[in-house]
Amino acid sequence: MLSCLFIPLTPVLNRLISQGFKTLMLVLTLSATVNVTFYAQAQAPVDWNALNLNANQRQSIQQLESQWQEKYQHVHPRLRTERERLRQMMQNETAGESDVIQIQNNIQQSEGELRDEAMRIFMRKKTLLNEEQRQQLHQQMMMRRHGRQ
């Protein structure tokens, strides 16, 4: 008799679970979006000119920044499209869990590409610096870090 009481609730519970899952996925997507945006912006505040770069260093850093822009312009439209697809899918009651997860995986992959490229570019810039410039860079980063806390 008790099992009969739960049978009519199953579609309602399925809908609630599905909506909860969609909400969770949306929250995860938005938080990941903020993280990538923050990460990309966190790289920008380094004042490379304050490091007294020579002409070769300046040129190499400009080339690396161009590489970053090229990668970002290549990946970001795809990322924006996938986020929009996910947003639309989250509003669709009939969206399948596997479809939502696939789009979320695509988003995470694109965000990972950008994070990895940003770190590679930063590390390549850092290798262009001499020891004194690296120390100055470290000081800049520590000041920026303590300024955010």
CATH class assignment: Mainly Alpha
Determine the strand fraction and express it as a percent band: under 5%
Number of strands: 0
Intertermini distance: 59 Å
**Helix run count:** 5
Rg (CA only)? 23 Å
What level of helicity do the residues show? over 70%
Kindly report the average pLDDT value.
79
- What is the number of domains? 1
Q: Uncertain spans, ≥5 residues at pLDDT below 50?
A: 1-9, 33-44
Provide a quick synopsis of the model.
This protein has 149 residues and is mostly helical.
Q: What can you tell me about this protein's structure?
A:
- The protein has helices spanning 2-6, 9-43, 55-91, 97-127, 131-148.
- Residues 1-9 and 33-44 have low confidence and may be disordered.
- By secondary structure, the chain is an all-alpha fold.
- It has one domain: Up-down Bundle (Four Helix Bundle (Hemerythrin (Met), subunit A)), CATH 1.20.120.
- The protein has five helices and no strands.
- The termini are far apart.
